[in-house]
Design goal:
By secondary structure, the chain is mainly alpha-helical. It has one domain.
Length: 491
């Protein structure tokens, strides 16, 4: 059975999504989906252990050898991404779905969990497949499920947010499909490792240039790279907190993985950065994202919307490390992939706790929250410190590597701007903290913490971010190994 783990990683949540339609009962389906998420997490850990012990894994679906058949290929990079996605799913899926945040009755919750498992299937499929067209197929599975999940928010604006997400997502998917078609036209293959080899003789053709441009722009839309981020703020604001926590911690991370795979493995660093000048576009866009996202977050009056705009800045940190093209900086980007998933996933779940008790995520309604919901308020404070990058938090580790990479590459101004962006992040974090500790809120006798079923998953993620801030050896080791393999152009 162990040799079939790569296929099982995708098949298990896919089949389970269909089984949700059979089980139907809300509590049973929730427990079942949680068990599936934990099983996927165990599979991802097993795959990571096998990669560390014996190198990359190649799995030929149906026994058809690549490049003719579809290949699932697991190396240090996507094994790392698989662990991130499944770990977030294992933590988020137990978070209860409350009627105050969704528009569907409890009797229809099985459809919600079916969509959630389909989103998980798509994200895992993107990360594990070695076939370019398979990436598009799984991308559409995860995207269609995500549009549905966002639209289920209680606020009617969730529908318009989902529609905007659908339009932008379809545009991005269309660009990716065109890029795939052009690459196939020039090489006759869809296997990414084979494509990297066959592109060599035709790299200087306009068709390959256009294929690269379409793929990068389409992936940039899915990643919400500035200024292609318009869909993100409303989608995360009006989606149920469980959905916002899951998507913010996984969807953009998988899109970043695909971007890195395209740049380093398929097209190559020389082509992407020297021939196509990717760094000249990505570096200023990333720096702009640091400040635009943080400044926009500082002006928000709603906690979920503030966190949504913060995500734009945090995505900027990830793409900045890629644009710097230094091993230390790229390690920082991959570290932030993991650390931001823990922090932002936990913060959105904390926002769900707030909405459950206050029926609102408006900052004005959160005055004195620290006295009413101390566990939730502390989770928000700790997560906020992680976004700023305070020493002892996971966010600090990522930014330390990014600043070090910028200095090693001679980018002194970029290093200064990285530090300055953390100060801007401190502004919006303090804005939330100031409201929560305000003395003019309701009196302590109205204290009423969220149920344990809500704050336990929240603190599982926030606590993990603290642990990996104090003990980052494991995440640093995996991220640095993945960064080295990317810079070496390993297929």
């Amino acid at each position: 059975m162990s040799e079939h783990l790569p296929a099982l990683q995708v098949v298990l949540p896919l089949v389970s999504a269909a089984l949700c339609l059979v089980l139907r009962r809300a509590f049973v389906v929730r427990v079942f989906a949680t068990a599936v998420a934990w099983a996927c997490f165990a599979i991802a850990l097993a795959l990571l252990a096998r990669v560390e012990a014996g190198g990359p894994i190649s799995y030929a679906l149906g026994g058809w050898a690549p490049p003719l058949g579809i290949e699932y290929r697991v190396d240090s990079l996507n094994a790392y991404v698989l662990v991130i996605v499944t770990a977030i799913a294992a933590a988020v899926f137990p978070f209860p779905l409350r009627g105050r945040e969704v528009r569907i009755p409890r009797s229809r919750h099985f459809l919600f969990y079916a969509s959630l498992l389909l989103a998980l299937t798509g994200l895992l499929g993107i990360a594990i497949t070695g076939d370019l067209f398979n990436v598009f197929v799984f991308l559409e599975i995860s995207s269609l499920a995500a549009y549905t999940l966002v639209s289920l928010g209680r606020d009617r604006r969730a529908l318009s947010a989902a529609f905007s997400y659908l339009v932008m997502g379809s545009l991005g998917a269309g660009f990716i499909l065109i890029g795939i078609g052009l690459a196939y036209q020039m090489t006759g293959t869809l296997n990414m490792a084979d494509l990297a080899v066959r592109l060599d003789p035709v790299r200087d053709t306009r068709t390959v240039w256009m294929a690269f441009a379409f793929l990068i722009v389409g992936t940039g839309i899915k990643l919400a790279v500035f200024p292609l981020h318009q869909w993100l703020p409303n989608a995360y604001t009006y989606a149920p907190s469980l959905v916002a926590g899951f998507l913010s911690a996984t969807a953009t991370k998988v899109a970043f993985y695909f971007l890195a795979r395209l740049v380093f493995t398929v097209f190559g660093v020389a082509f992407a950065f020297e021939s196509m000048g990717l760094g000249a576009v990505l570096l200023p866009a990333s720096v702009a994202a640091l400040f635009v996202g943080s400044i926009a977050a500082a002006y928000q009056t709603d906690l979920k919307r503030l966190l949504a705009y913060s995500s734009i800045a945090q995505i900027g940190y990830m793409t900045l490390g890629l644009a710097l093209l230094e091993e230390r900086a790229l390690t920082g980007s991959l570290l932030h992939l993991f650390n931001h998933a823990l922090i932002k996933g936990g913060l959105f779940l904390a926002a769900g706790c707030v909405v459950f008790r206050l029926r609102s995520s408006a900052l004005a309604d959160m005055r004195g929250l620290a006295r009413r919901m101390p566990l939730t308020a502390m989770a928000i404070v700790v997560g906020g410190l992680g976004l700023v990058g305070v020493p002892g938090t996971a966010g600090f580790v990522s930014k330390w590597y990014l600043v070090g990479g910028a200095l090693e590459g001679g980018h002194l101004l970029v290093a200064f701007l990285l530090l300055a962006s953390s100060l801007v992040a401190a502004i919006y974090v303090w804005k939330v903290v100031e409201v929560m500790i305000a003395r003019d809120g309701p009196e302590p006798e109205v204290r009423c913490e969220a149920p344990a079923s809500m704050w336990v998953p929240t603190w599982a993620l926030i606590g993990a971010s603290l642990y990996f801030g104090l003990q980052p050896q494991w995440s640093i080791g995996i991220a640095s190994q993945a960064a080295r393999s990317l810079l070496a152009g390993a297929p």
